[in-house]
Amino acid sequence: MRILSRLLVLVGVIVIVVSAVLLGKDVIDINQLHAVANANRSTNFPSPLNNVLITYGLSVVGAFLTGLGVSMPKGRTRP
After folding, report:
1. Is residue 6 part of a domain?
2. What digits encode the pLDDT tens for the residues 67-76?
3. Alpha carbons 9 and 21: distance in angstroms, whole number
4. Residue 12 covered by a domain
5. CA-CA to 64 of 20 to 30 Å: which in 44, 54, 70, 75?
6. CA distances (Å), 42 to each of 29, 37, 38, 47, 50, in order?
7. Contact, 29 vs 47, CB < 8 A?
8. How far is the C-alpha of 45 from the C-alpha of 17, rounded, in Å?
9. What is the 3-state secondary structure (H, E, C) of 49-65?
10. Domain assignment present for 79
11. How far apart are CA 79 and CA 40, in angstroms?
12. CA–CA separation, 19 vs 21, rounded Å?
């Protein structure tokens, strides 16, 4: 169980880092979209809503895996 616990913690932390990077990118995209929408209202631009939802989902999964890995027993139990 020790290896599985550490693997889950590692995967969880990696997913959280990736979701943080995506969230930063989404914030920049939203700011640019807002600036363009204010400057030129007749042009259509894609909505970043799907990226925000994917980022949220990755954050939840990463936090769940990290919590699961941390809460697992660290060693073998002796009878």
Report:
1. yes
2. 888 887 766 6
3. 18
4. yes
5. 75
6. 19, 8, 10, 15, 22
7. no
8. 28
9. HHHHHHHHHHHHHHHHH
10. no
11. 71
12. 5
Q: pLDDT of 6-62, one tens digit each?
A: 888 888 888 888 888 888 888 888 878 777 777 766 666 666 777 888 888 888 888
Q: Integer distance in angstroms from the first to the last C-alpha of the chain?
A: 16
Residue 33 lies inside a defined structural domain of this protein: yes
Q: Predicted confidence band at 3 (pLDDT cuts at 50, 70, 90)? A: confident
Neighbours of 29 (CB within 10 A): 16
Domain count for the chain, please give it. Answer: 1
In terms of residue numbers, what domain contains 19? Answer: 2-69
Which pLDDT belongs to residue 26? 81
Q: How far is CA 14 from CA 10, 20, 29, 47, in A?
A: 6, 10, 23, 27
Other CB atoms within 10 Å distance of the CB of residue 42: 4
